[in-house]
């Protein structure tokens, strides 16, 4: 029988929310991008009215700033909130390296001063590898005001104390712990190195001071000079931690006095004083940026505390303190982590022996990127919870120089590579040169992703020796193994343990949770789907960390560990002839079975764990725990320790100088915080235990495994034993991965974590008061643990944990996952038109092992990869990008591929090493010579918002940009109809995008071609025949603006205007001011300077019998903006009729109203033109003019005014049948006619003397199309040929003014190639021989609609380059200038922008009036809306295809 063992690979964390997280370099397909935005449960800031009571009365001027971090799969979030804003939380940056594999990003931070933070960050899996945990994290300094990030060219540890800051010196110290030395780098707020020293031994908690550092060297408080010289300040009982240093030379720290107790001490100029004491898990020291020190939590103050200068605060001891100590922020847990851990909360709380299904939980739903932050005011003691909005784009994702190899704090880019088209490996997704036995990306080698129930069942069966063929569903996808019968424990019987007994199910499940998240297939596969077998990408390709980004992706086949599946089994998994030392390859069928079948993998992995137990239970090298009963999870502590780091056998004692378990995972190692609670213990820390999943670096490996065994793991999915998937919110939903072990009491469960001194005592020459401080690597061997027994539970038979078998009754294998909320394949053609020819992503006849059966295809699909030309040595692989490619059993017919988008800096780009191109192609031309094209987008694995599909047509290459994320729903998306002529229809898609950072998924699914006659001409897709230009055509008068009843607000604002009610008011008149308003229509209208509205206003009265009566008045109000600091209101009032029983009706102005800064000049009764009283039969109009003035005395001010008027009415009866009535009407109080068109904006910014406009009226800029037809036609083309229709009034899609256009930066994006216009112009189309071509971008540079305006600056149509726009040029053809698509390009008419090579005279002339007068005269301000009238129209040919052939004429 082959010996099965494994080496530990990067561990997996708690699966977040409803999607599984990556177990390798892939980011799993997510269903979040277009979900309904999450609603905030808490305010963004403390409400203004509550701030005095919550924060204390001096909050506003305190200068306090709170800073904290939150970890999730997007990166390490750094959040900032200032007291003056009521602690309105904002994201300063999100730190990540998207090209590195990470299921979750973790890290630590500290404050260098009020404006800068030092940060370490890394993938969570770094905590499983000692070298990465101790010195592999990335480092950065963040400007908290601007969000700028300086990434530094060195790495540091993830230890809880790293980095450590001193705000008095504006510096931070980073620590990298190596075998016998500690590198300590001190940096300033610019990220520049102040000192870089290497000290002997292990230095922890080092804080920078003016002349060096103060830290802990074992049980000593030491000073380390800038040259690395070490001097002892004072001795301590244990390694001091929470060290703070003041400018006066005072050092405060905590020193453990026992396993659970500690003392707070101060050291000043040679004198050490104890000032407080308490439990290690209840108190901590913190220092604000003024240097003041605080004792947080609960502690007993000793006599000297009052003179210590330390301030006690009864707040959570693990809280992060603000810069002035006024706010203590609880650890922040992201929504994804919160939802994940919530799903396991309470699982196993039933302490009885009866196994049962996990409890029903709440569904995760859509994952929110909002962060809820709870804090305590240290001034008032008030608790508050606030919400930070989802982060926008930040500077944190740019590549670290520690990865690029640059020695400076900056980012560098990678060189491009070239393809080797004659190498068959360049088109094969399989790594045929791999040393690992079972390939990735082989369509004939797919693993089933098991449900959590299937994994738990297999473990429950296997630990009892019952995982045999009779209980397993044979055939189907299992036939890929080549074995006639799958018989796991017929192949690998239940292992025998030295000393008897068997493995508890929860210990094996804890190992599987830590190693693989319970996955057998790659992370993108949802339980129930097929996918490539889970072969840790790092281990499969031999990727090495610590170098540049290019170094990381280099393939080292000779370093492949070849760990596969849920147990990450490695031994025997290399190809024959490529074995590791002392390894024998398994038979190929067994290798495939281990890689593809979770039951075979689990049976094999049990032998791994048993080997680790047996290794510490051999004669003369026994290392036991408690009573050594293998049924108790705690007693596997040393075996799991062995599982992660391996064992130094006694047989090599002479060679190594000692034997036993290594120091790194020793719980007493000071790189793990002494005050940590058990991993995932919701009882020990009810408020903050979910934070554990985001900070696994605080626990050694074996404590994490014990935590999973005791509290389980969230898998993000819920399944019944039948395989039916339960969806969030449904009855029975529970995403707990397995049932945890049980204890008799909660306290006994918490005690699964041993005391800190259990493995550091006289037995291994270790004094927990004096942790290793070694001058060389050999020194650490004396601390290896090899004592025959370690006990922390004397009555283990009753106080240790107990196995809980969920499947206590032997049953057949649980069902495969089905009824998937996301991930169910689409077997039919869906919404495709009839006659479609479909090209699948795999060859015909490929088994999908789904309900879709085997695939069919009408064409071929092929990948192209690009080699690393430097990878030519032995053991090196050339095609790096295959590591980033994944296959999933979803999408069309049950198979699609996905990778990640990349730009050149992330090794993408044309021919880049990480570039992947997919090509769908029919076998030949179609008789119709034309075809409509559709692409299938799966419902997972498609996150990019910019997938660039290239269609090589007979008229050029069309580029169609598809937002895969918005269409991630198993749907066909129309790309357009195109002419191919005698070319075989074809579509290409690359993972290269202009801003790809290796983060977003991009999918290759099926492509459909629907042949037909779409009326596409056989020449140009765009052909606009232009009229001859008229150099004498007068420019339009831009001051003449047509009235409009459309209220158009500035960008990001709202404005409305009710429509007409159908009645008329014909008896009132504007007296010639606004004749367009005298049609009587009941509606508000305006220009930029005149607003007019007609209303029918009822005045009510009551008869003596109690009945109501109505007199209808017609009222017209005209507002005229006719002065620099004044404007005028004109009222015209007339009744429809006055009833005979009314003697007289009198109206009067009660008063005019206006906003602050605006004063109405109230006219007297004599100012009326026509008396405001009426008798029966009298319908004359009464008119009144009122002037308003506003304060224009202060420069650069802006005001908004909504002038208003109250009109009172007195109704007098002709007899006693009616009582005299007093009534009234206020213009702005109407509930049916309230409008925003009459809101006035006045300012002294556009002109110093001031002026006013109706800012919700959008003015129109009109081209002189007769004089500048090329520019007019280009704008018309984009207005009518783009889905955004920018500036087109009839489409209600205004342009939004951006003063200055970012100083030309927007234009630089669109016209981004030097000489583009001259390269692509026709000299004959110029106005004259002196006319030069110009790149005309539309929409305009000075607009938020510009393609060059970034989304983070509120750009509406952001692109990365002008190549994404519709590209045209002016060409003379037989005496007529045409605007045509650029040769070699084919517009899709889905572009959001255009660039055209046209006459420079026409381009500049068309906009001359805009810059010289229009913007100023219309008083356009930032974000104001306006329209563009191109003053040209087209008579266009009809057809259903993708083309525009038009003859243009001027209006």
Can you describe this structure?
The protein is 11% helix and 28% strand. By secondary structure, the chain is mainly beta. The chain has five domains: 55-334 and 369-389, 7 Propeller (Methylamine Dehydrogenase, Chain H); 436-670 and 679-799, no CATH class; 837-1014, Jelly Rolls; 1075-1234, Immunoglobulin-like (Sandwich); 1260-1450, no CATH class. The strands form 21 sheets. It has a seven-stranded mixed beta sheet. Strands 40-44-49-46-47-71 form a six-stranded mixed beta sheet, with no helix packed on it. A six-stranded antiparallel beta sheet has the order 53-54-55-56-60-58, with no helix packed on it. α5 (452-463) packs across α11. The longest helix has 18 residues, at 598-615. The model is unreliable at 1-38, 348-366 and 410-421 (pLDDT under 50). Residues 31-43 have a biased composition (Basic residues).
Largest sheet: 7 strands, mixed
Specify the number of helices. Answer: 21
Note poorly predicted spans: 1-38, 348-366, 410-421
Strand order of the largest sheet: 68-72-69-70-52-75-74
How many individual domains? 5
Q: What multimeric state do the chains show? A: single chain
Q: Structural class, judged by helices and strands?
A: mainly beta
Percent in helix: 10-25%
What is the end-to-end distance? 89 Å
Shape descriptor: globular
Strand percent estimate: 25-35%
Number-wise, the strands total 75
The whole-angstrom Rg is 38 Å
Give the mean pLDDT.
Answer: 89
């Amino acid at each position: 029988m082959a010996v099965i063992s494994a080496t530990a690979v990067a561990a997996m964390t708690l699966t977040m929310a409803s999607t599984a997280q990556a177990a390798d370099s892939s980011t799993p397909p997510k269903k979040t991008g277009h979900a309904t935005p999450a609603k905030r449960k808490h305010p963004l800031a403390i409400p203004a009215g509550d701030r005095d009571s919550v924060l204390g009365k001096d909050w506003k001027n305190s200068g306090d700033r709170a800073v904290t971090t939150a970890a999730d799969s997007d990166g390490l979030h750094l959040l900032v909130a200032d007291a003056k804003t009521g602690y309105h939380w904002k994201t300063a940056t999100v730190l990540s390296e998207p090209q590195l594999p990470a299921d979750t990003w973790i890290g630590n931070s500290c404050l260098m001063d009020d404006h800068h933070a030092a940060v370490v960050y890394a993938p969570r899996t770094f905590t499983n590898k000692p070298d990465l945990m101790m010195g592999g994290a990335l480092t950065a300094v963040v400007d908290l005001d601007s969000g700028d990030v300086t990434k530094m060219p060195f790495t540091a540890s993830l230890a809880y104390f790293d980095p450590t800051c001193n705000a008095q010196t504006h510096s931070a110290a980073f620590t990298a712990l190596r075998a016998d030395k500690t590198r300590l780098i001190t940096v300033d707020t610019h990220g520049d190195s102040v000192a870089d020293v290497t000290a002997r031994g292990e230095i922890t908690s080092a804080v920078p001071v003016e002349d060096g550092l103060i830290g802990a060297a074992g049980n000593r408080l030491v000073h380390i000079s800038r040259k690395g010289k070490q001097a002892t300040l004072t001795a301590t009982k244990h390694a001091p931690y929470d060290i703070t240093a003041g400018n006066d030379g005072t050092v405060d720290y905590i020193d453990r006095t026992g396993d659970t107790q500690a003392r707070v001490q101060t050291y000043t100029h040679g004198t050490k004083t104890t000032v407080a004491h308490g439990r290690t898990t209840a108190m901590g020291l913190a220092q604000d940026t003024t240097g003041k020190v605080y004792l947080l939590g609960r502690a007993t103050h000793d006599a000297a505390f009052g003179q210590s200068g330390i301030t006690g605060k009864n707040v959570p001891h693990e809280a992060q303190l603000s810069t002035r100590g006024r706010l203590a922020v609880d650890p922040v847990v992201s929504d994804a982590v919160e939802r994940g851990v919530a799903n396991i909360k309470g699982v196993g709380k039933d302490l009885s022996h009866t196994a049962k299904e996990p409890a029903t939980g709440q569904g995760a739903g859509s994952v929110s990127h909002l962060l809820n932050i709870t804090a305590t005011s240290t001034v008032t003691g008030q608790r508050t919870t606030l919400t930070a909005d989802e982060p926008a784009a930040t500077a944190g994702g740019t590549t670290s120089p520690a990865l690029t190899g640059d020695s400076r704090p900056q980012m560098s880019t990678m060189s491009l590579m070239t393809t080797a088209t004659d190498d068959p490996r360049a088109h094969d997704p399989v790594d045929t040169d791999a040393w690992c036995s079972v390939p990735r990306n082989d369509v004939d080698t797919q693993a089933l992703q098991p449900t959590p129930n299937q994994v738990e069942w297999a473990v429950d069966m296997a630990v009892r020796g019952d995982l045999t063929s009779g209980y397993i569903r044979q055939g189907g996808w299992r036939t890929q193994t080549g074995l006639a019968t799958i018989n796991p424990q017929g192949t690998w019987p239940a292992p025998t343990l030295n000393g008897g007994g068997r493995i508890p199910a929860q210990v094996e499940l804890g190992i599987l949770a830590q190693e693989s998240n319970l996955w057998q297939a790659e992370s993108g596969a949802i339980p129930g789907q097929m996918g490539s077998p889970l072969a840790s990408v790092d281990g499969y390709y031999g990727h090495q960390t610590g170098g540049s980004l290019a170094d990381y992706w280099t393939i080292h086949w000779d370093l492949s560990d070849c760990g596969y599946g849920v147990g990450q089994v490695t031994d025997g998994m290399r190809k024959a002839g490529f074995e590791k030392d002392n390894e024998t390859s398994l038979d190929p069928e067994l290798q495939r079975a281990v890689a593809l079948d979770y039951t075979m993998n689990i049976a094999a992995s049990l032998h791994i764990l048993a080997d680790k137990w047996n290794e510490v239970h051999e004669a003369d090298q026994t290392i036991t725990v408690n009573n050594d009963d293998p049924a108790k999870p705690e007693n596997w502590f040393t075996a799991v320790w062995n599982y992660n780091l391996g064992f130094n056998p006694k047989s090599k004692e002479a060679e190594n100088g000692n034997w036993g378990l290594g120091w790194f995972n020793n719980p007493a190692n000071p790189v793990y915080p002494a005050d940590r609670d058990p991993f995932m213990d919701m009882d020990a820390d009810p408020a903050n235990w979910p934070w554990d999943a985001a900070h696994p670096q605080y626990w050694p490996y074996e404590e994490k495994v014990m935590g999973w065994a005791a509290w389980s793991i969230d898998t993000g999915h819920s399944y019944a034993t039948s395989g039916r998937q339960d969806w969030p919110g449904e009855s029975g939903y529970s995403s707990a991965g397995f049932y945890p072990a049980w204890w008799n009491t909660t306290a006994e469960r918490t005690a699964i974590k041993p005391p800190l001194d259990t493995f550091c005592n006289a037995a291994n020459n270790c004094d927990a008061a004096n942790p290793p401080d070694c001058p060389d690597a050999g020194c650490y061997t004396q601390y290896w643990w090899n004592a025959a027994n370690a006990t922390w539970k004397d009555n283990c038979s009753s106080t240790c944990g107990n196995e809980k078998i969920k499947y206590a009754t032997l049953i057949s294998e649980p069902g495969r996952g089905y009824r998937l909320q996301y991930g169910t394949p689409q077997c039919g053609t869906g919404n495709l038109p009839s006659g479609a020819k479909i090209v699948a992503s795999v060859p015909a006849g490929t088994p999908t092992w789904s309900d879709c059966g085997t695939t069919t295809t009408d064409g071929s699909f092929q990948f192209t990869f690009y080699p690393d030309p430097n990878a030519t040595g032995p053991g090196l692989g050339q095609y790096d990008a295959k590591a980033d490619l994944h296959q999933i059993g979803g999408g069309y017919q049950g198979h699609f591929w996905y990778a990640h988008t990349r730009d050149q800096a992330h090794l993408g780009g044309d021919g880049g090493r990480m570039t992947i191109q997919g090509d769908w192609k029919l076998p030949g031309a179609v008789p119709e010579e034309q075809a409509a094209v559709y692409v299938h987008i799966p419902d997972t694995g498609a996150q990019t918002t910019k997938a660039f599909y290239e269609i090589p047509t007979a008229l050029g290459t069309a580029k169609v940009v598809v937002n895969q994320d918005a269409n991630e729903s198993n749907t066909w998306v129309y790309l357009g109809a195109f002419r191919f002529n005698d070319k075989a229809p074809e579509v290409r898609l690359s993972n290269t995008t202009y801003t790809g950072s290796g983060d977003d998924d991009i999918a290759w699914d099926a492509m459909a071609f629907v042949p037909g006659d779409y009326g596409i001409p056989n020449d140009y897709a765009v052909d606009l025949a232009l009229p001859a230009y008229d150099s004498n055509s007068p420019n339009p008068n831009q001051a003449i603006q047509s009235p409009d009843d459309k209220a158009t607000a500035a960008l990001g604002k709202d404005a409305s205007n009710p429509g007409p009610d159908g009645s008329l008011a014909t008896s009132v008149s504007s007296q010639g001011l606004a004749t367009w308003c005298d049609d009587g229509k009941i509606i508000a209208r305006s220009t930029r300077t005149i607003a007019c509205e007609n209303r029918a206003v009822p005045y009510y009265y009551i008869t003596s019998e109690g009945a109501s009566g109505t007199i209808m008045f017609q009222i017209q109000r005209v507002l005229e903006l006719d002065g620099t600091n004044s404007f005028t209101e004109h009222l015209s009032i007339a009744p429809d009729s006055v009833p005979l029983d009314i003697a007289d009706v009198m109206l009067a102005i009660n008063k005019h109203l206006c906003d602050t800064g605006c004063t109405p000049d109230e006219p007297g009764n004599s100012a009326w033109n026509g008396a405001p009283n009426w008798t029966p039969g009298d319908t004359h109009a009464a008119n009144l003019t009122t002037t308003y003035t506003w304060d224009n005395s202060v420069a650069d001010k802006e005001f908004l005014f909504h002038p208003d008027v109250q009109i009172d009415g007195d109704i007098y009866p002709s007899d006693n049948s009616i009582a005299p009535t007093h009534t009234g009407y206020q213009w702005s109080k109407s509930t049916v006619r309230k409008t925003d068109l009459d809101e006035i904006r006045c300012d002294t910014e556009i002109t110093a003397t001031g002026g006013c406009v109706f800012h919700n009226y959008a003015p129109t800029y009109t081209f002189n199309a007769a004089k500048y037809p090329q520019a007019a036609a280009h704008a018309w083309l984009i207005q009518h040929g783009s889905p955004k229709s920018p500036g087109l009034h009839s489409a209600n899609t205004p342009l939004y003014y951006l003063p200055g256009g970012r100083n030309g930066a927007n234009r630089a994006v669109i016209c981004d190639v030097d000489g583009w216009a001259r390269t692509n112009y026709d000299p004959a189309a110029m106005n004259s021989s002196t006319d030069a071509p110009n790149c005309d971008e539309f929409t305009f540079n000075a607009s938020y609609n510009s393609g060059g305006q970034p989304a983070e600056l509120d750009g509406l149509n952001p692109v990365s380059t002008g190549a994404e726009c519709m590209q045209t040029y002016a060409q003379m053809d037989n005496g007529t200038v045409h605007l045509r698509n650029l040769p070699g390009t084919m517009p899709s008419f889905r572009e959001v922008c255009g660039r055209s090579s046209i006459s420079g005279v026409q381009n500049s002339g068309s906009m001359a009036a805009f810059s010289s007068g229009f913007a100023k005269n219309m008083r356009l301000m930032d974000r104001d809306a306006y329209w563009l009238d191109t003053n040209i129209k087209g008579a266009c040919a009809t057809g259903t295809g993708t083309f525009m052939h038009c003859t243009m004429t001027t209006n």
